[in-house]
Amino acid sequence: MARVFDSYYAGGSWNRTARTFPDINPGNDQVWANIADMDINDVRRTLQAAQEGFSEWSQMPFTERANFMLKAADECDRRKDDLCAALQAEGGGWWGKGMFEAGFISTVFRAAAAMAYQSIGEVLPSEHGKVSMAVRVPMGVISVISPWNFPGILSSRGFAIPMVAGNSIVLKPSEETPYCGGIFFAEVFDAIGLPKGAFNVVTCSRDNIAEIGDELIENPIIKGVSFTGSTAVGRMIAAKAGAHLKKTCVELGGKDSLIICDDADLEKSAQLANFGSFMHQGQICMSVEKVLVHEKVYDKFLPMFIERARKLKVGDPTSDRSNVIGPLINDKQAGIVKTQLEDAIAKGAKVLLGGGVNGRYVEPTILTGVTPDMLIYQFETFGPVVPVIPFRNDEEAIAIANDTDYGLSSGIMTADENRGLEIASRLETGSSHVNCSSVNDEPHAPFGGAKSSGVSPHGGRWSLEAFTQTRWITLDRGHRHLPPVF
Ligand code: NAD
Fold this sequence. Notes:
Aldehyde Dehydrogenase, Chain A, domain 1, binds nicotinamide-adenine-dinucleotide, 22% strand, Aldehyde Dehydrogenase, Chain A, domain 2
C-alpha cells in the first residue's frame, strides 16, 4: 500500500492539499507514496507562516536554537532505519548508501548546533574612540531547494546552519524524493516541538515547479536562497535571485577527475576509482567522472580497476541488500547516460567493462579511448559510466582535469605529498583531495564549486556568512569631533 502524505507542514501544522502526486520507486516502478501537490496559494500561506515564525525563532537565545538542533539530531538517529528504507525506496539507492546517509544527517545537525556557539562578530578599532562592532544578524526567511541524489544530507546541509543562525526556513525538496528531502524533516521538527513557522516544507510535482520555484525566489518575504542541483537550473535561479538583489548559495554539477600518478598505491587507487565512479550509480555531484592515469602505470591499473568494478551487483536494491548498483533515478537520467555512452562508442571509445543499459539499470561501465569531442568528456554524466584516460606528465593531467566548464572537486593519488599538494593547488575546483577520491564531504568544511559548479560554499562558517547579514553598529562616547559651523 502506498503511503499518503497529502498535507504540507507550515506554521507548525499539517495542511491538506487539493491534489497529490505519485512518488515512484525507481527500482520497481511502484508508487511508494502520494505527496501533497501544493499550489501557489498554499506556497504563499507557507511563506507567510515562515515570516510569522521568524520573530520568535530569531529572538530566541542561541543556546535554545542549538538545543533544537541537538534534539533533531537525536530524533534523526532514532528514525535511522526507517529513513534508510525510505531513501532506498524513493531514491533507488543501495542499502549501504541509505545507512550512510541516514547516519550522516545527525552530524549535520550537531555541527549546526556547534556553529551557534562560534564567534560571529568582530570589534573594530574606531578613529573616534567609538565602540565599533561588525555584528551578524539573521536575514529572515530563507528558501532551500534541494536535489534527489542525497536528499537527506543535501536538504539538511542547506538549511541547518542558516536555521540555527536564526533564519526561518522554507524547504522545497526534489519531486523525486519529497519525503526524504523534506517531509521527513517536518516530522522530525514536529516531533521535537519546534516553535511554529521556524521550519516549513513545500512539496510540488514537476508540473508546477516553474511557478512555485519563482515564488520561492521572487516573493519579497524570501531574503536568501540556498540551491543545490543542476547547473542549468542553478544558473537560472541565481540570475533571478540576483535581479531581486537576494543572496544565493548555489551548489551545482561537476565533472571531477581522479588523477593517479606513477608513484601512487595502485590497489588503493583502484578502490577509490571504483567507489568514486560507481557509488550510488555515479549519481553524486562530486563523483569521479574521469580517471586520469599516468601512462607508466596505466596498463597495470586498468585490470585492477576492472576486477573491482566487475564485482558490483546490479539490481533492485529494495529487494536485495547485495545489489550495490541500483536504478538511475528516472528515465530522463537513464536516457542521458545512454546517449553519452552511444556517442562515445560511435566516435571510437572502447567498452572494457559493462556497457549494458536495461531501462534505468546501467551496468558499471569502464571506457577507454575517450576524446574531447565526445559528450562524455565534456558533460556531466551522473551515471555509472567512466572513462580512463592516460597522461604523460603532471602538466598534462592538470590540463585534462581543468578542461571542463565545471569545477567542483578532484582527487590526486601519489606517494609524494608535496607533488599531490602542488597538483591540488593548480586544479580549478572548489575542493581537492590528495590520496583520496573527489567524493568527500564534512559538515563543517567549505563545500562549494568553482567555475560552473557553484557560487558561495555551504558548510560551517561559510554557511553562516552566506545566510547572515553583516551590520556595523557603533556607540559614540563623545569623542567624535564635528565641524564647529554645525
Ligand atoms: P535539478 O536542478 O533538476 O533540481 C534541483 C532542485 O531544483 C529540485 O528540487 C527541483 O525541483 C528544483 N527545480 C527544478 N526546476 C526549478 C525551477 N524552475 N525553479 C526552482 N526550482 C526548480 O537537479 P537534480 O536533478 O535534482 O539533481 C542533480 C544535479 O544536482 C546534478 O547536476 C548534480 O551534480 C547536482 N548536485 C550538486 C551538488 C553540489 O553540492 N554541488 C550536490 C548534489 C547534486
